[in-house]
Design goal:
Strand order of the largest sheet: 1-3-4-2-5
Number of helices: 20
Helix content: 55-70%
Mean pLDDT: 88
Largest sheet: 5 strands, mixed
Structural class: mainly alpha
Order of helices and strands: HEHHEHHHHHHEEHEHHHHHHHHHH
Length: 397
């Protein structure tokens, strides 16, 4: 895992391109002339901020990933307000993206772009990718798919890089047809003047992706008005949070909930995370309304707990009426997930916030038994048992 992580970062510095309006690459922070001034930080500023957050000392840190997502969301918010962006926007993503990446094609691209350098590094990477899933496939070499979950920073680079050829070809198409293309990982948005123009663009994107061995997700492909996009992504709620206007936040959140209950699409996970952070910051000024939204969302969508990082988890547990009950609920949700990432985040919660958990009523005994339970239930995961569980146990007072 350490070698894979290092190889991705080392090779990434050589081959990643910073394209306007394209986000999601490992340590690749693109900027765009259309974006607000807050997006145009220098590389030194970005890395200094990441260092302060412990990014370079914590393999599992998602600091840079979250920073990029914030920038991406700010850009979408700006574009949804601008008539010059176009009347409509197409949204889509790639079906089974990580699992569909063709390894021989990926390696071929890397060898092409390093121009004869890094031969041994690419050879090592190729070997790792062919055998990373050997526990389930035996030692049959894989030709498709890259790892996900807790070593995903490296995989984010590979997936981002894999789409660079597509980005170049599709950007050229969009420029010729006066469209605007934005990408976050495999989440794509195309702004344009008419539905017909966007239908043609989707067809073109599909053809280009097919040549890369990828397919658009037909079930998630939609054409919306700019206003519908804003509502779909909860952008009004995010704007109210950024302005720190609690009354406006509650009005916008109530409107978003009503919109969703009428059967309209809403990026509930995005609204949930943003509302969680803001509710925690409100402290004693938080109202029953926003707390109920958070707790009801957790009850109706328990899988969302397994997607939260350690900071989000401690915040959710802290504002719960019964912190112990919420702690146990989070633990149960993480155990039901088939992947290691959720369990790693739960153990990171204890490792980093054990004393804080004690202060809100989560006893040392419960924390210890929870770590032992996670380790016991993760018998086939060397990462959980040897890297994540021991420091979590050691951090308990």
């Amino acid at each position: 895992m350490a070698i894979y992580y290092h190889l991705c970062g080392y090779i990434g510095e050589k081959v990643l391109k910073k394209e306007p309006n394209v986000f999601g690459g490992w340590r690749s922070i693109p900027v765009t002339p259309r974006a607000p001034k807050t997006l145009t930080h220098t590389k030194d500023e970005i890395e200094a901020k990441a260092a302060q957050a412990g990014y370079f000392f914590d393999t599992f840190s998602d600091t840079m990933w979250l920073e990029q997502f914030k920038n991406f969301t700010q850009l979408i918010r700006e574009l949804s307000k601008q008539a010059s962006s176009g009347t409509y926007v197409a949204t889509t993503d790639i079906a089974n993206f990580y699992d569909s990446i063709e390894l021989p094609r990926l390696v071929q691209k890397l060898r092409r772009d390093v121009q004869g350098e890094l031969h041994e590094e690419i050879e090592l990477l190729e070997m790792f990718l062919a055998l990373w899933d050997r526990r389930t496939t035996g030692y049959s070499r894989s030709s498709k798919g890259i790892p996900q979950e807790i070593i995903s920073d490296g995989s984010r680079f590979l997936s981002h890089y894999y789409l660079q050829d597509f980005d170049g070809k599709f950007m050229d198409y969009c420029r010729r047809n006066k469209l605007l293309y934005v990408r976050w990982a495999d989440d794509m948005l195309i702004f344009g003047p008419s539905k017909r123009a966007l239908e043609h663009a989707i067809h073109r994107a599909s053809r280009i992706l097919l040549s890369e061995g990828l397919n658009l997700n037909a079930h998630k492909t939609r054409i919306l008005s700019r206003n519908e996009l804003a509502r779909n992504r909860g952008l009004d709620v995010l704007s109210a949070i950024d302005s720190r206007n609690a009354a406006d936040f509650r009005r916008k959140l109530r409107s978003a909930i009503s919109w969703h209950r009428q059967g309209n699409q809403l990026r509930l996970d995005t609204v949930f995370r943003a509302s969680l952070g803001y509710t925690f910051r409100l402290g004693k000024n938080a109202k029953t309304f926003e707390k109920n939204f958070l707790f009801e969302t957790v009850d109706e969508n328990p899988d969302i707990l397994a997607t939260l990082n350690d900071v989000q988890l401690i915040r959710l547990i802290s504002i719960a009426d019964d912190p112990k009950e919420m702690f146990v609920k989070v633990r149960s949700s993480c155990l039901t997930r088939p992947y290691a990432g959720a369990r790693a985040n739960f153990l990171l919660l204890i490792r980093k916030h054990s004393r804080g958990l004690v202060r809100i009523g989560i006893s040392e005994r419960l924390q210890k038994s929870s770590v032992e339970m996670i380790a016991r239930e993760s018998g086939d995961s060397v990462i959980i048992r040897t890297i994540c569980a021991p420091p979590a146990l050691a951090a308990i007072p």
